[in-house]
Amino acid sequence: MNRIFQLTRRLWAALLALCLVLALTLPVFAEGESSADTTDKETYHIGTMDELLQLADYCRLDSWSENRTVMLDADLELTGSGFSGIPSFSGVFLGQGHVISGLSLVNDGSVVGFFRYVQKGANVRDLVVRGRAMPTGSRTTVGGIAGSNAGTLHNCRFEGVSSGASIVGGIVGTNLASGVIESCTTIGKSKEHPDIYLKCAADLKAAPHETVVFEDALYAAKTAKAAGFSVIGVLSEAVEEGDRIALQKLCDRCITDYTALLGELLPPEDR
To answer: CA 141 to CA 15: how far, in whole Å?
Structure first.
C-alpha cells in the first residue's frame, strides 16, 4: 500500500513538473509569434522633395518599409537636392505614373540606383525616373531604377545614362534570382554607346578629334576611342590591375589623378 502511495506521488510530481515547463515555454512561443508582425503600416505619401529625402533617411533601416505602402503623389525635380538614392526598400512603392527628374548619382558608391537595394517581396510600380547614374569609386553595380533588385519592378521607365565599372543596366544593375522585371523600359544608352560623348562634343561645338575624354572604365574608354576621341585614362584606386594595364595600352595618356594635369593647364604664375 505504501509502495502504491509513493508511485502515485511521483506521478503527480512528474505531471506538475511538466505543467511548469509548459507554463514557462508558452509565453516564449507567443512572444516569437508577435515579433513576426505582418500588420500593414501607415501609408507614406510623397508630394515634396523634403518628403522624398525623409523617405531615403527612413529607409536606412531595412525594416522601416516592410509591410508599408509609399505613394508618389506629384512629379519631383531633384536638381540640387543632394538626393543620393534610397538605401533599401522592402514595401510597395506606387509611382502612379509620376516623373522624378534631375537624378544625379555621381558620388562614390558600389551599388547605385534610385533604389540601391530593392529587397525580396518589394514591389515598385508605375515610376518614371530621369537623369544619370554615373558614380565614382568602385561603382561595381549600377542601374537607373535599382542597383540590386530582388523584388518586382513593374511598368517603370528610366530615361538617361547609366555608367559603372562592371555590372550596368538602364533599369537595374543586377537582377537577383527572386527579382522580376515586368513591362519596364529604358530610354538612353550606357557608355557602351558613344552618344554621351558625341552630345558633349556637340555642346562644345567641337569635333571628336578635337575633344579629350577622361575615363577610368575600360569599356567606356574603348567606346570613346572607337568614336574618334582622344582618351586620357584615369588610373584611380578603383581600377583593377588587369584594366589598368589595358587602359595604359589603349589610351593616349594615363594619369593617376587630375592634379597631374594642373602643372600643364594652369598659367605659369598659378602653378
So the answer is: 61
